[in-house]
Amino acid sequence: MTRRLAIAAIALLSVSTAFAQALPPGKWWRRPEIVQRLNLTDEQQDRLETIFRASAAELIDLKADVDKASIALRGELDRPQLDRVAIHRIATHLSETRGKLFDRELTMLIEMRGVLTDPQWNRMRNELNQMERRRQQPLPRARP
Fold first, then answer.
1. Which of 31, 76, 80, 142 is deepest in the core (most CB within 10 A)?
2. Measuring CA to CA, which residue among 78, 79, 72 is closest to residue 94?
3. DSSP, residue by residue, 2-40
4. 116 — alpha (psi -120 to 50), left (phi > 0) or beta?
């Protein structure tokens, strides 16, 4: 039972949110290559910036809460004597905190999606799918 609990906790630590795959990292609406590919207007860029700024502080706080809970869980798992109650309590808190982070990220994504036209969104999704395929391709082996 202890081993299963530890494996579940480790799996919980390694799961990332789906949001990370929904949009490019950073202020993508300010990158010239993305602005050009999507044909973003100045107004769209400003609206995306406003949405980001309205979300940023809360996202930072929620990410910090996730990190703190992850550290606490790792600390409990590293103890010589496992305290199942404490591990479960911390894991539950971590799960709830990740849920809050996901909800806030999703809200921001929905708001940003509302700024883009359907063709812009489709181009964005195609670009991200291509990036993901390239990322998943194995690196070529070095020749001796």
1. 76
2. 72
3. HHHHHHHHHHHHH---GGGGTS-SS-GGG-HHHHHHHT-
4. beta
Its pTM stands at: 0.73
pLDDT in tens, 8-35: 545 444 444 444 457 778 899 999 999 9
Cα–Cα nearest to 3, from 114, 113, 82: 82
Long-range pairs, 55-59, Cβ under 8 A, ≥24 = 55/104, 55/107, 55/108, 58/104, 59/101, 59/104, 59/105, 59/108
Token couple for 127: 């670009």
Please tell me the distance from the alpha carbon of residue 115 to that of residue 107, in angstroms, as a whole number: 13
Tallying the residues shown for the chain, one arrives at 144
User: Rounded to the nearest 10 degrees, how much is the dihedral formed by the CA atoms of 119, 123, 129, 133?
Assistant: 150
User: What are the helix (H) ranges across 15-142?
Assistant: 32-38, 42-78, 84-115, 118-136
Around Cβ 73, how many Cβ atoms within 10 Å?
21
